[in-house]
């Protein structure tokens, strides 16, 4: 039996190539030997020290524009090569000199398509680098005599030629209308830039902490184009910058935005996300990290260790609530029993331990004691429940990227070398340890909290007797 089958692989390949060429012709794309000849000529010209390039005929000028429009792959991007070799300006100087008046109308649409289609390459060129290109572009559009809608629209809206894309948004309001009124194809880079600016303007219009279907719709589009650069940030980073600027102004951010940011940017408390956060802005990185950390400390003090046989918890809570605003970063490390308590009494917080193990960690073996690490900028603290010591450090004592810890890590090795002082939660009812630590922080780190601030509301009536008791034990009551 013959192995020859019909249609053969070669036949199908030939047919596909022919079909592709027909599609290209239908889309106005140039193909063929003359096209390839001009492409090679431009590549040689880019690497040549010679500033002059001669065209055999006017059709070769048209083919030159086609090459600059069509060759967009990294391997064969002729336009980018000419820009990198600083030959684009001289190329269009040569084109302008050799272009005949009766051919200027013919290449006008090619010039505009090149500008629209490869806009990102022209956007960052200096006035000197793009002088001859823009000169020919403006002349071609303004002197066009014909019925091409895209050229007539450009002629009518001169701001689009100068790159003032905000004017298009201001004039036509809606993205769909902009495309229709300017006859722009979605594949044009200039349309993509308008779309990006449009999305950014939408984000700027949102109310602080607004979250609704309109916001979700715009965010969906932003995520589709998230990697497009907007100055020093990509579109997603720029959007988060806009949102955080609004939220910081009122010192509040809702969970919807937190979830979006965590999912698409990353938790600012996790070290590996620091680079992207620094691009967004260090000011907002430190603000959000501190806010999240302060909320965690409050949750740890008020909800996560409320009871469970720990008699110190109410005094510890009252004490550290006075210092929360000074905390820059925190990390909770829960015991097994603590997690079980959360699972039953605070399921939302329990989910965080399952979803963000680098921010919310666990003890390997410890069954009852839970701890929290707190960064105050100039000193560091590890506080704990169930007879854990309160420790102050001059340097970060533990590896903050870990997910699981042993309690001994807090007082041995590097932690021991960084230790400044430790305290026992002694005589809480008399406020002995609380005032001792208050004075230590005040004397060493200049953070002032009044004595009555660390005293429980139900103990205020005996404030004077507490002061007398502390004074008798040589503690400051100022």
* Rg for CA atoms: 34 Å
Strand percentage: 5-15%
Q: How many E-type strands? A: 9
State the end-to-end distance.
106 Å
Strand order of the largest sheet: 8-4-3-5-6-7-9
Domain Zorya protein ZorC EH: 194-437
Protein name: Zorya protein ZorC EH domain-containing protein
Pfam families: EH_Signature
Overview of this structure, please?
A hairpin with a 4-residue loop joins strand 5 (371-375) and strand 6. Among the domains are: 9-156; 291-473, no CATH class. The chain has helices at 9-26, 33-47, 58-70, 78-84, 88-98, 101-117, 119-123, 131-142, 149-156, 159-162, 165-172, 175-181, 189-205, 213-224, 235-250, 255-264, 274-280, 282-304, 313-321, 336-345, 347-355, 414-418, 432-445, 463-472, and strands at 229-230, 233-234, 329-334, 360-363, 371-375, 380-384, 390-393, 404-405, 419-423. It is built from 24 helices and nine strands. It has 478 residues and is α+β, with helices and mostly antiparallel strands.
What is the topology?
Elements lengths: L8 H18 L6 H15 L10 H13 L7 H7 L3 H11 L2 H17 L1 H5 L7 H12 L6 H8 L2 H4 L2 H8 L2 H7 L7 H17 L7 H12 L4 E2 L2 E2 H16 L4 H10 L9 H7 L1 H23 L8 H9 L7 E6 L1 H10 L1 H9 L4 E4 L7 E5 L4 E5 L5 E4 L10 E2 L8 H5 E5 L8 H14 L17 H10 L6
Parallel strand pairs: 3-4, 4-8
Antiparallel strand pairs: 1-2, 3-5, 5-6, 6-7, 7-9
Helix pairs in contact: 2-3, 3-6, 5-8, 6-8, 11-12, 11-13, 13-14, 13-15, 15-17, 18-19, 20-21
Protein name: Zorya protein ZorC EH domain-containing protein
InterPro entries: ZorC_EH_Signature_dom (IPR028943)
Pfam families: EH_Signature
């Amino acid at each position: 039996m013959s192995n020859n089958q019909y249609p053969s692989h070669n036949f199908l390949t030939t047919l596909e190539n022919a079909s592709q060429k027909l599609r290209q012709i239908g889309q106005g794309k140039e193909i063929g030997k003359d096209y390839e000849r001009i492409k090679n000529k431009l590549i040689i010209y880019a690497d040549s020290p010679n500033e002059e390039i001669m065209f055999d005929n006017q059709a070769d000028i048209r083919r030159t524009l086609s090459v600059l429009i069509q060759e967009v792959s990294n391997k064969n991007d002729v336009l980018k090569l000419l820009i990198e070799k600083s030959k684009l300006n001289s190329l269009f100087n040569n084109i302008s000199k050799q272009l005949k008046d009766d051919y200027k109308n013919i290449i006008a649409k090619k010039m505009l398509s090149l500008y629209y289609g490869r806009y990102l390459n022209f956007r960052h060129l200096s006035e000197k680098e793009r002088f001859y290109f823009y000169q020919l572009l403006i002349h071609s559009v303004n002197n066009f005599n014909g019925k091409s809608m895209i050229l007539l629209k450009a002629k009518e809206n001169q701001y689009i030629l100068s790159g003032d894309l905000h004017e298009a948004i201001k004039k036509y309001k809606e993205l769909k209308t902009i495309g229709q009124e300017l006859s722009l194809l979605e594949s044009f880079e200039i349309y993509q830039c308008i779309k990006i600016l449009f999305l950014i303007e939408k984000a700027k219009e949102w109310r602080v902490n607004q979250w609704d279907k309109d916001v979700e719709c715009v965010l969906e589009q932003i995520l589709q184009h998230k990697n497009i650069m907007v100055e020093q940030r990509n579109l997603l980073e720029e959007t988060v910058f806009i949102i955080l600027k609004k939220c910081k102004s009122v010192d509040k951010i809702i969970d919807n935005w937190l979830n979006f940011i965590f999912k698409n940017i990353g938790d600012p408390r996790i070290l590996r996300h620091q680079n992207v956060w620094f691009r967004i802005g260090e000011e907002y990185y430190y603000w959000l990290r501190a806010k999240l950390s302060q909320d965690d400390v409050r949750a740890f003090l008020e909800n996560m260790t409320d009871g469970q046989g720990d008699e110190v918890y109410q005094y510890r809570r009252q004490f550290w609530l006075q210092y929360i605003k000074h905390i820059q970063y925190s990390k909770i490390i829960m015991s097994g029993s603590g997690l079980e308590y959360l699972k039953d009494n605070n399921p939302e917080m329990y989910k965080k331990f399952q979803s963000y193990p680098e921010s919310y960690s666990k003890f390997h073996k410890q069954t009852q004691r839970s701890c929290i690490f707190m960064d105050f900028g100039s000193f560091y603290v590890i506080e704990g429940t169930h007879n854990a010591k309160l420790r102050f450090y001059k340097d970060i004592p533990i590896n903050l990227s870990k997910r699981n810890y042993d309690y001994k890590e807090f007082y041995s090795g590097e932690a021991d070398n960084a230790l400044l002082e430790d305290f026992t939660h002694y005589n809480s009812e008399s406020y002995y340890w609380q005032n001792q630590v208050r004075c230590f922080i005040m004397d060493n780190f200049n953070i002032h909290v009044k004595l009555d601030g660390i005293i429980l509301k139900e103990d205020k009536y005996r404030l004077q007797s507490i002061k007398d008791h502390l004074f008798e034990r040589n503690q400051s009551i100022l």
